Amino acid sequence: MARSTREAARTLAAIAHEQGGYFTAKQAAEAGYGYRHLDYHETARNFERIDHGLYRLPEVPRTEHDDLIRLSLWSRNQKDEPQAVVSHETALVLHELGDLLPGVVHLTVPLRFRKAPPTGCVLHKSALGSADFEDRVGFRVTTPLRTILDAAAGGVSQAELEKAVAEALSRGIVRKKALEDAVAHPGFERIKSAIVRKAKRR
Fold first, then answer.
1. N or C, fewer C-beta in 10 Å, the chain?
2. Long-range contacts (CB closer than 8 Å, 24 or more residues apart) made by 175-182
3. Which domain does 42 fall in, by range?
């Protein structure tokens, strides 16, 4: 059954507000907007076209993490499901672990992801489970524990890694037992060293 214009507008607005003002053409269609309606509203400047199949409600204020929301929606698959998870150095910043100021955005995508990364974006391929990330408004970010593991495997300096581990343990957002269990296997010597250093500082 076709929705009224007012109902379609309410439905689309609710979707967009959960995504920092953004919405996809498929989401608009499900709300009750056909493609000709999208063209009309774009011309009338009610909708702002951001990219192929991606729009925005201009009246919604841009958020601090507008770029991450946009990249999340950029990564959507054929089912319109976002695939990217904010990770590595960018996730360290979001969790306020350390003093890094990365010049690029780090995202983890599925192993079979094929899109080329936009300028200023680095893609890491991995099979993340539901326990590896958490939801934010409009995007997902790796958990503090997973973020530290990724940072150790990446290019983060030992000093920054130790700072991140110390802050995560001090603030209780990562439990020492969980971190020790995660790095029990070979290959995580840098984190093991960071745990030891944290213990010595007490």
1. N
2. 178/145, 179/145, 179/148, 182/145, 182/149
3. 5-56
